[in-house]
């Protein structure tokens, strides 16, 4: 072997190609190798879409899930386990006792249930399936016990509590809760005391919702607040067989300092509105007065009559003596109506125009002529015949 290797090495050095190695013969027992198919050339081009395939639109929105169903506890009843031999024996003995003590046992076996009540019967500690009532309900002595449930609506006052609002104001909230029992079985089995649990849940829910709102929202939207509390409490008490019908916020008490600040703010708003209304009224009055003055300035007689009307209204309101300078120019239009001989009458004494002026002035200042004469007679000196009488007196 060494000689052969040396010969092949020497021939490879001389430049000749090395001879190919001898082919190995496959063993006779081994099967012939399988021919692998040639690889399929992959192209980067994507296959064209089918022409008849419709165009896909946007993906469908996610389906809206329904309300979450709360898992209810499993309640075993006497009907679920009918193969209990001990219970059958107890029922037989109870029936035998009823037959022996008949008819006195009837008074122990029959129960009268009112219209607004329902009865749950427990036999040997397990509740019987279904709610009994109203009317007569049959029970077996010694093995059956019953509990009455009132289905009427209860009204309970939620205890008052101090709550800090979102804008850091401490308030005291009073509320009233109205609820009723919808499922007597759940109300007795799922919770210890349905009434007390409902009131406590309402109290904590009220604190949580009120604390998340500002003071202005609480004062202006009480109906929305009551509805929100009612929905939240009813969502919790539903599993207990209790239905919350209504929640009313009776009173929201504020601190004294906050009440004063709100009152001053409201008063300032009212005063501002009153000033605005008064300014608008003065503006309208000034515009109307301007229009009236424009009309009066076109007619002097109208202005003079308005002057006299003002004097009359002043004299009618108060009984007092008013010294008011009376311009003679006011009477000029009335004096000129007598005729054209007024200029000549100033020189003579028998002018009828002068008498007319005198009568107009006398009537205006002293009334009629008879009133002037009576005023003169009332101020006359007493006679000589009356003087001794006054002296004797």
Q: Care to describe what's here?
A:
Residues 46-55, 383-393 have a biased composition (Basic and acidic residues). Keywords: Coiled coil, Membrane, Transmembrane, Transmembrane helix. The chain contains 14 helices and eight strands. The protein is of the alpha+beta class and 393 residues long. α5 (194-211) packs across α7. The strands form three sheets. Strands 3-2-5 form a three-stranded antiparallel sheet. Helix content is 45%, strand content 15%. Among the domains are: 85-150, no CATH class; 154-254, Tetrahydropterin Synthase, Chain A.
Keywords:
disordered N terminus; single chain; Tetrahydropterin Synthase, Chain A; alpha+beta; 3-stranded antiparallel β-sheet; 393 residues; rod-shaped
Using the 3D structure, state the CATH architecture of the domain at 154-254.
2-Layer Sandwich
Spatial strand sequence of the major β-sheet = 3-2-5
* Assigned CATH class of the domain at 154-254: Alpha Beta
Q: Unreliable segments (pLDDT under 50, ≥5 consecutive)?
A: 1-17, 42-55, 57-72, 338-349, 368-372, 374-393
GO cellular component, one term: cytoplasmic side of plasma membrane
Protein name: GL22263
Organism: Drosophila persimilis
InterPro entries: Band-7_stomatin-like, Band_7, Band_7/SPFH_dom_sf, Stomatin_HflK_fam
In brief:
The chain has 14 helices and 8 strands. With 393 residues, it is α+β, with helices and mostly antiparallel strands.
Could you give the topology of this structure?
Blueprint (H helix, E strand, L loop, with lengths): L1 H12 L71 H16 L5 H4 E4 L3 E7 L2 E2 L7 E4 L5 E7 L3 E11 L5 E12 L2 H6 L4 H18 L3 H6 L1 H16 L4 E12 L2 H42 L2 H18 L14 H4 L6 H4 L6 H15 L2 H10 L7 H7 L1
Antiparallel strand pairs: 1-4, 2-3, 2-5, 6-7, 7-8
Helix pairs in contact: 5-7
């Amino acid at each position: 072997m060494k000689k052969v290797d040396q010969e092949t090495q020497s021939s490879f050095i001389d430049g000749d190609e090395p001879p190919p190695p001898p082919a190995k013969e496959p063993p006779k027992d081994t099967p012939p190798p399988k021919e692998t198919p040639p690889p399929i050339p992959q192209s980067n081009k994507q296959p064209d879409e089918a022409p008849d395939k419709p165009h896909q639109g946007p993906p469908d929105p996610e389906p809206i899930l329904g309300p979450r169903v709360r898992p209810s506890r499993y309640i075993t009843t006497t009907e679920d386990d009918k193969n209990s031999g001990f219970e059958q024996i107890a029922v037989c003995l109870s029936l035998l006792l009823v037959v022996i003590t008949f008819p006195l046992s009837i008074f122990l076996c029959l129960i009268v249930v009112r219209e607004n009540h329902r009865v749950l019967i427990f036999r040997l500690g397990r509740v019987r399936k279904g709610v009994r009532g109203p009317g007569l309900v049959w029970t077996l002595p010694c093995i059956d016990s019953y509990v009455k449930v009132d289905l009427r609506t209860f009204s309970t006052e939620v205890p008052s509590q101090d709550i800090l609002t979102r804008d850091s104001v401490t308030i005291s909230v009073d509320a009233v809760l109205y609820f009723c029992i919808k499922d007597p079985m759940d109300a007795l089995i799922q919770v210890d005391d349905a009434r007390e649990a409902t009131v406590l849940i309402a109290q904590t829910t009220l604190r949580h919702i009120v604390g998340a709102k500002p003071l202005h929202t609480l004062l202006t939207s009480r109906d929305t607040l009551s509805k929100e509390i009612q929905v939240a409490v009813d969502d919790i008490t539903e599993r207990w067989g209790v239905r919350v019908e209504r929640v009313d916020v009776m009173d929201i008490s504020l601190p004294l300092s906050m009440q004063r600040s709100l009152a001053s703010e409201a008063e300032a708003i009212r005063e501002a509105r009153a000033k605005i209304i008064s300014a608008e009224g003065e503006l309208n009055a000034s515009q109307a007065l301007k229009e009236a003055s424009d009309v009066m300035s076109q007619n002097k007689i109208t202005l003079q009559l308005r002057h006299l009307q003002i004097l009359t209204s002043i004299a009618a309101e108060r009984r007092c003596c008013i010294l008011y300078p009376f311009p003679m120019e006011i009477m000029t239009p009335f004096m000129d109506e007598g005729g054209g001989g007024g200029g000549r009458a100033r020189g003579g004494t028998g002018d009828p125009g002068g008498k007319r002026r005198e009568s107009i002035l006398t009537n205006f200042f002293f009334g009629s002529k008879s009133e002037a004469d009576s005023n003169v007679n009332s101020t006359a000196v007493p006679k000589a015949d009356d003087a001794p009488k006054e002296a004797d007196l």
